Amino acid sequence: MTVPLVLVQGDITRQRVDAVVNAANSSLLGGGGVDGAIHRAGGPEILADCRRLRAARYGKGLPTGRAVATVAGRLDARHVIHTVGPVWSATQDRSELLASCHRESLRVAAELGARTVAFPAISTGVYRWPLDDAARIAVRTVREAADPADFDEVRFVLFDRAAYDVFAAELATQGEG
Ligand code: ADP
């Protein structure tokens, strides 16, 4: 058995789930894209929690491929899980780091008892990862790593129709059951 994977076209800050994954940058101090949207919608408590984490553990930044949780502020969620995606490289294979973002986020979610988790398309914005390749890695990794004993649903939230279609094609290719 595998965890149900659900695709939604929309805004990740509007999801009602236990944990929302943020495509953060290593500073944990906010940025553009998903990161900016989460901090705007969730309010200052999330940033305050990020600053505490930075001071306590991640003064040099959260390493690429790792994940940490904070409160979710005003979001309709209990936790935000911040993970740092790799920047796309045409000369280096960084797939393992992108897979690690998904695995680590799920590990942190499971530790917190978060049974529903929403992921954005990590690394496909400012970090320029080609959507079809990112979708292949994201879907495969979540299918392999999400234990159905831990999760009721993993949701990919795609901002636009084009990204939704790419993820839908990937789910169809890899099989949904
Ligand atoms: P990264 O720096 O990891 O590339 P970005 O936040 O720049 O992260 O973009 C990741 C993906 O999230 C892109 O496909 C972008 O279109 C999408 N995105 C941006 N804002 C939102 C949002 N509010 N909800 C869902 N997806 C979003």
UniProtKB/TrEMBL annotation:
Superkingdom in the source lineage: Bacteria
SUPFAM superfamilies: Macro domain-like (SSF52949)
Protein name: RNase III inhibitor
CDD domains in alphabetical order: Macro_OAADPr_deacetylase
Organism: Streptomyces alfalfae
Residue span, Macro domain: 1-175
Family matches, as Pfam families: Macro
